[in-house]
Every structure is written in structure tokens, then in C-alpha cells.
UniProtKB/TrEMBL annotation:
GO molecular function: 23S rRNA pseudouridine(2605) synthase activity
PANTHER family linked: PSEUDOURIDINE SYNTHASE FAMILY PROTEIN-RELATED, RNA-BINDING S4 DOMAIN-CONTAINING PROTEIN
Record-linked Pfam families: PseudoU_synth_2 (PF00849), S4 (PF01479)
Protein name: Pseudouridine synthase
Length: 251
């Protein structure tokens, strides 16, 4: 073995392909092929040999440059929050919370950011405190996409205005991307992508430009999409999808 490989090899550890398979990356055979193809690194060292054993508790594994979450005790889920639900795990006013939607799960989840009571759509929940912290911290600038039905006829010029930026009472704000989906006399449908996590930011922004929001749905958070989830439904995020999410925030 090379010196670099020796630094990560643990004689009484678990075979790397077994750790990968247990993490849900693929079958044992598929994981062996990934290793031999040079797609897997451990603690920054590319591994192409099948005999390598590692300590799954301490090793940091990447597949195609994306982190592999090998700690089975850490769970992250995508949840479709219906309108009328508060974005907390418990509420002292007795309102329905995110916890009510996942009451069948035994884990203790943290919610990643918030959606206001009337906004519906994608919200992430995780038992991984560090991932939750990074996903909500402004410095990582994780993009989020919303589809809104707004009052009035929106013109294409509004997109240029919002991409250039406007000023709200708590400071300037601009969108990363604006798409006019549908324009009618009484209301229009727009798609907005931005990385700000400020409170009710889409609603406040659209009201400022004269098109108050009538309905608002978040459809994407980072690389995670709402997909086929219906209100109240959830799904576990794993494999390369989770790896890509972790990569977004430097994990």
C-alpha cells in the first residue's frame, strides 16, 4: 500500500465497499466498481483498492466529490407543508405543527428554516444538527425556488427589476432568477429563485412591486425538489441526493 493509503487503512475496520453499501450508495458489487473506477475518496485520499478497511465512525467518504452520509442515525426528510401549519416542532398556542405531520417517526428532527403559516410546499427536517445549521446560515446562500400566484398582470420587465434589486424596510433584496409563467388580467403566476432566508421575503417583495401574493408554494430547496409529494407527505433524502445537499454547504 502507498503511504497515503496506509494513513487511512484500519486493520480491524470495515471494508470500504461494505460501508458504502450500508450507506445506501448501491449494491456491494456496484460499490466495488465505483472504488476501482477511482470515484471514491476517504479523508481526501482516492481509493482504488478493494482491500481497504476504514473506521466508519471517523472516516470522511466522498463519492464523485460529494459527501457520503454513513451515519445511519442521521436522517433528513423532505416534507410538503400544507397551508395552516406552523413551521415549528411544537407550539404553545396549540396550533398544528410540522411534528403533527411526522408523528409516526421516532426521531427528534430540527426544521431547516421556516415557511409562514399560509405558505405551503417544501421544507426540510433533519436529525443532523450541523447540516441544519449550515443549510439555514446566510453565508452558505442556499437557493430556494417558489411559485406564486399574484394579483394583477405581471410584465416581463418586472423580472429585470427584481434581478437588479429593490429595497425593503430591512434592506436591499434581489432575486437570482425570475420566470413569468402566466400573465392574465386579474392575476399572474411567477417563479422566483432567491437565496435569502429573510422572513416572508417573497410576499414582501411582491407586495412592494404592486403584485401582492395570493398563493405561494416553495418547490425547491438547494438541489431538493418537491417532486410528487402531496400536502402532508414526506420522503427520506439519501444517497447522491443527500450527498449533493451536503456538498452545497461544504460537508
Amino acid at each position: 500500500m502507498s503511504r497515503a493509503i496506509n494513513d487511512i487503512h484500519v486493520a480491524d475496520g470495515e471494508r470500504l465497499q461494505k460501508v458504502l453499501a450500508h450507506a445506501g450508495v448501491g449494491s456491494r458489487r456496484a460499490c466495488e466498481e465505483m472504488i476501482q473506477a477511482g470515484r471514491v475518496s476517504v479523508n481526501g485520499v482516492i481509493v482504488k483498492q478493494l482491500g481497504i478497511r476504514i473506521d466508519p465512525e471517523t472516516a470522511v467518504i466522498h463519492l464523485d466529490g460529494q459527501r457520503v452520509q454513513q451515519d445511519a442515525s442521521k436522517v433528513t426528510i423532505a416534507l410538503y407543508k400544507p397551508p395552516g401549519i406552523v413551521s415549528t416542532m411544537q407550539d404553545d398556542q396549540g396550533r398544528k405543527t410540522l411534528q403533527d405531520l411526522i408523528s409516526d417517526r421516532p426521531e427528534r428532527f430540527f426544521h431547516v428554516g421556516r415557511l409562514d403559516v399560509q405558505t405551503e410546499g417544501l421544507i426540510l427536517l433533519s436529525t443532523d444538527g450541523e447540516l441544519t445549521h449550515r443549510l439555514t446560515h446566510p453565508s452558505f446562500e442556499v437557493p430556494k425556488t417558489y411559485i406564486a400566484r399574484v394579483e394583477g398582470t405581471v410584465t416581463r420587465g418586472l423580472g429585470r427589476v427584481l434581478e437588479k434589486g429593490i429595497t425593503l424596510e430591512d434592506g436591499p433584496i434581489k432575486v437570482d432568477k425570475f420566470v413569468l409563467r402566466e400573465a392574465a388580467r386579474k392575476n399572474s403566476i411567477v417563479e422566483i429563485t432567491l437565496h435569502s432566508g429573510r422572513n416572508r421575503i417573497v410576499r414582501r417583495m411582491m407586495e412592494e412591486v404592486g403584485h401582492p401574493v395570493m398563493e405561494l408554494v416553495r418547490t425547491r430547496f438547494g438541489n431538493i425538489t418537491i417532486g410528487r409529494l402531496k400536502p402532508g407527505q414526506s420522503r427520506v433524502i439519501g444517497g447522491s441526493e443527500l450527498g449533493a445537499l451536503m456538498h452545497l454547504v461544504g460537508l
